[in-house]
Design goal:
By secondary structure, this protein is an alpha/beta fold. It binds adenosine-5'-diphosphate. The site of adenosine-5'-diphosphate has 17 residues, from helix 3, strand 15, strand 16 and helix 14.
């Protein structure tokens, strides 16, 4: 498929094959740790990750955080890692150290051939990020849409991107052994690789892992978009890429990947049931033996309360005065009355139905007459944006609303809040509740997906309680959980214990990386 490399590149490969062998360590302790972890998860591997967004280059949600952090953690553990992602608007300006690679994509896309360049950055000695430079597709203000309207050529954009991934998997000099793709944007890669290895001969093709970050987004397109894949029709049927006559990119990935993972154990169970299965539960039940739930980790180099450039004051679970200082600073920044004694609740979110915004608005209506403050950072549906703005107008001394996307402010809110609200209808993993735990903003969550897997309620374990959970999807149930939170706010010793339990939780990637390595090796026929 396409030209692997230009003739110039063949003469002088610009992407140097990196040795996948581990760096020797002189410390006997470190060597022993490495030996033990190799015994558990095997020797170093060569892994190509693919994601349509990667922190710190592009991000609309948790997918970007997960792929950026997993790539780093795998590289730190001694593996050779590449990450493939589109080169979106503004990235080159923000990362001027990026270099053009001597490599040309020239790939069929339906009846046409499409060219693109490859750029790269070495993030760590064992970690290269590859960017697909195709300005006609990716140099736009949004990643997938603008003003809530999807780009009309998304099928073309991401089928081309998927072809670039398969092409790199095949021709990169360091020969990836594992290709780990994420979400629908790369969902066709397993079928593309399978087809190339069957039809064109590929020696030993890589194992393919697909991670589903959110089953609600499937990449559905008219049947005609399938022509852009240049695959024969034997991948387009109800057990493959076809979904009631349409092309379904995520379903194709589910059908043809060797291993499927999703981002929490509970969500892995939920998506095989009808209420959460988004019409793919039957397909997922059939492939259940290959489906593993692996909780996302947190990049604690970024999300920490000490020496964090986004925070005005550092603090730890033992020295919480800095947390209070952050609260006062945020109240001042957002124009709320500066008061140490008032409980501060917060939410940082995409404003979509998934996130339980309707019940959050209802619960706030019920609770705002009480003495509390609430801060929202979010963007999304016009209706929800207007509703929160209305609340801020009606309760100017209690509610502050910041519409838009603001990474630095999100850290300041987590650091300032006493409680964090996350009443999602469904939540594959959720990162913000884990950030809240680390920042001592005690989370109040609905019992679903990763929220259930990461937060402990006093009903489950009074000594380890670090948050509040409720089950009913209703404003009343959320308001009740908020009242419980207000009750512990009145008992400083209890609040301190919740905070300390929360802040001592460890969701680091070092803990989870072994689970991915085991998944890559999963061998089920
Ligand atoms: P999802 O991926 O469904 O949006 P997650 O909780 O897994 O939800 O991840 C959301 C990520 O996006 C978190 O890192 C969160 O802080 C960030 N985020 C969401 N909205 C905003 C915003 N308006 N400003 C800054 N960060 C945001």
């Amino acid at each position: 498929m396409g030209k692997p490399v230009t003739s110039k590149a063949r003469r002088q490969p610009a992407i140097k094959a990196k040795s996948a062998t581990k760096t020797p360590t002189r410390s006997p302790v470190k060597r022993r740790v490495r030996e033990l972890s190799e015994a558990a998860v095997g020797p170093p591997q060569r892994i190509l990750l693919a994601s349509s967004e990667v922190h710190p280059f592009s991000k609309t949600g948790g997918l970007a955080d997960m792929v950026g952090a997993l790539g780093k953690a795998l590289a730190h553990a001694g593996h050779r890692v590449g990450i493939v992602t589109p080169l979106y608007q503004g990235i080159r300006e923000r990362f001027p150290q990026m270099q053009r690679v001597d490599w040309v994509f020239d790939l069929p896309l339906g009846a046409n051939r499409v060219q693109a360049e490859l750029w790269s950055i070495e993030l760590l000695p064992q970690l290269t990020v590859y960017f697909i430079y195709k300005p006609e597709y990716f140099d736009r203000p949004g990643l997938y849409n603008e003003h809530g309207v999807d780009y009309p050529d998304n099928a073309e954009r991401f089928i081309f991107y998927s072809k670039c991934i398969a092409h790199l998997a095949r021709y990169l000099p360091w020969k990836p052994e594992v290709v780990h793709v994420n979400d629908w944007q790369a969902g066709l890669v397993p079928a593309l690789i399978r087809h190339q290895s069957l039809a064109e001969g590929w020696g030993t093709p890589p194992r393919i892992c697909l991670t589903i970050h959110n089953l609600a987004y499937q990449g559905l397109f008219p049947r005609s978009a399938y022509n852009l894949t240049n695959l024969p029709l034997n991948y387009f049927h109800p057990e493959g890429a076809e979904f009631y006559g349409l092309l379904n990119c995520l379903k194709a990935g589910i059908a043809y990947a060797d291993v499927l993972t999703t981002v929490s154990p509970r969500y892995a169970r939920e998506i095989t049931t009808e209420p959460f299965g988004c019409a793919l539960d039957g397909m997922l039940r059939k492939r259940q033996s290959r489906l593993i739930g692996i909780l996302n980790g947190v990049d604690y180099e970024e999300w920490n309360t000490e020496g964090n450039p986004n925070l005005k004051h550092s603090y730890t679970s033992r020295r919480l005065t800095g947390k209070l200082a952050n609260k006062l600073a945020l109240q001042q920044e957002l124009g709320l009355p500066v008061r140490a004694d008032v409980p501060l609740f917060g939410t940082i979110t995409r404003l979509t139905d998934q996130k339980g915004i309707d019940i959050e608005l209802g619960a706030l209506e019920e609770m705002l007459p009480t003495d509390l403050q609430f801060v929202l950072l979010g963007s999304g549906s016009d209706e929800y944006e207007r509703a929160f703005q209305g609340l801020a107008r009606r309760f100017p001394h209690k509610v502050a609303v910041q519409l838009g996307y603001n990474e630095a402010l999100s850290h300041r809110i987590e650091a300032a809040c006493d409680f964090y609200l996350m009443p999602s209808k469904f939540e594959p993993c959720g990162l913000n509740q884990m950030y809240s735990l680390r920042y001592g903003a005690v989370p109040i969550v609905r019992i679903t997906g990763g929220l259930d897997d990461t937060v402990t309620d006093a009903n489950e374990d009074p000594a380890a309680a670090n948050g509040f959970k409720f089950l009913d999807y209703s404003a009343r149930a959320l308001a009740k959980a908020m009242r419980k939170a207000l009750a512990i706010y009145e008992v400083p010793a209890l609040l301190r214990r919740y905070r300390q339990n929360a802040m001592s939780c460890d969701f680091s990637w070092q803990r989870t990386v072994g689970e991915y390595l085991r998944a890559y090796r999963l061998d089920i026929k």
